[in-house]
């Protein structure tokens, strides 16, 4: 009989944020595949769980995935965990999950704490629809390109960001999204958890005066405006072009957002110069 791969969510901060089912699975499996065994031992030792551990961190992920697959071929069951949250969601683990599916193994989700939903639940912004971006590129030009592509996104947008880039990212967001509402959630479920709510500028003015530390989740308001007249659409094209987009790309984005003819808007944008 083939082994089973369990995708086990672990706490994102407070060690008590783990399900009874997750603890049961961790105690029953033959081996635990951990992103960083040193980090995971804190959780496992806290709950008195002692199992063989395999680290699949970084460059080891592809090689270790094959080792884990071989173990599962012999019938061993494996619990896949990351340092915090759910493996494969802005965390390592996707390589092993894909390989297990390709080889026909049963892959079972054991859900738990999630920084995405935790941040959304306390942000105070619309949650009916949202889009998750995860970590933005570290290079500013690439980061700005991703943000510019999201200018017309009407759903609430969720990002992860590291402490050493949080100010740079918020500066870029202020430039591109201007005064949209947002929530910045720091260290969810940990001792120093904090939520800043307001416009991007208001959040920046507070953050610039505080100590930057920990992991951050940014929840950003989607575009709220409805369809606008052609004159306003032309202004939007001009703004996007000043921010670096080509005329054709800027026209396409604005026309799609406002329900206008791309050709008509393109011609009018040329005529207006």
List the helices and strands and how they pair.
Blueprint: E1 4-8, H1 20-28, E2 31-34, H2 37-46, E3 53-55, H3 60-73, E4 78-81, H4 94-102, E5 106-110, H5 115-123, E6 130-135, H6 140-149, E7 156-161, H7 166-177, E8 181-186, E9 194-199, H8 200-207, E10 216-220, H9 230-242, H10 247-258, H11 262-271
Helix pairs in contact: 3-4, 6-7, 7-8, 9-10, 10-11
Provide a concise account of the structure shown.
This protein has 273 residues and is α/β, with parallel strands linked by helices. It has 11 helices and 10 strands.
Task: Tell me what you see in this structure.
The protein is of the alpha/beta class and 273 residues long. The protein folds into three domains: 4-113, 3-Layer(aba) Sandwich (Cobalt-precorrin-4 Transmethylase, domain 1), CATH 3.40.1010.10; 116-220, 2-Layer Sandwich (Methyltransferase, Cobalt-precorrin-4 Transmethylase, Domain 2); 230-271, no CATH class. The chain has helices at residues 20-28, 37-46, 60-73, 94-102, 115-123, 140-149, 166-177, 200-207, 230-242, 247-258, 262-271, and strands at 4-8, 31-34, 53-55, 78-81, 106-110, 130-135, 156-161, 181-186, 194-199, 216-220. The strands form two sheets. The chain has a five-stranded parallel beta sheet with strand order 3-2-4-1-5, with helices on both faces. It has a five-stranded mixed beta sheet with strand order 6-7-10-8-9. Helix 2 links the parallel strand 2 and strand 3 (53-55). Helix 3 packs parallel to helix 4 and helix 10 crosses helix 11. The radius of gyration is 23 Å and the shape is elongated. The model has no long low-confidence stretch (mean pLDDT 92).
């Amino acid at each position: 009989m083939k082994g089973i791969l369990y995708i086990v969510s672990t706490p994102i901060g407070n060690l008590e944020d783990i399900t009874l089912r997750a603890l049961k699975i961790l105690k029953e499996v033959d081996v635990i595949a951990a992103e960083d065994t040193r980090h995971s031992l804190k959780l496992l030792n806290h709950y008195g769980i002692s199992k063989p551990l395999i680290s699949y961190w970084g460059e080891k992920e592809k090689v270790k995935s094959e080792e884990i697959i071989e173990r599962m071929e012999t019938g061993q069951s494996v619990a896949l965990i990351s340092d915090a949250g759910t493996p494969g969601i802005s965390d390592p683990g996707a390589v092993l999950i894909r390989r297990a599916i390709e080889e026909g193994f049963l892959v079972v989700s054991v859900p738990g704490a999630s920084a995405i939903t935790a941040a959304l639940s306390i942000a105070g912004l619309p949650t009916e629809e949202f889009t998750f971006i995860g970590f933005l590129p570290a290079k500013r030009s690439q980061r700005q390109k991703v943000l510019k592509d999201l200018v017309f996104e009407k759903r609430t947008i969720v990002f992860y960001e590291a402490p050493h880039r949080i100010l740079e990212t918020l500066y870029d967001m202020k430039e591109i999204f201007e005064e949209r509402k947002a929530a910045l959630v720091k260290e969810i479920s940990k001792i120093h958890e904090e939520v800043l709510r307001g416009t991007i500028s208001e959040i920046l003015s507070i953050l610039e005066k505080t100590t930057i530390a920990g992991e951050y989740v940014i929840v950003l308001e989607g575009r709220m405006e409805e369809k606008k007249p052609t004159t306003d659409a032309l202004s939007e094209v001009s703004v996007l072009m000043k921010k670096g987009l080509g005329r054709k790309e800027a026209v396409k984005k604005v026309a799609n957002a406002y329900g206008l003819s791309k050709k008509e808007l393109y011609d009018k944008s040329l005529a207006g110069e």
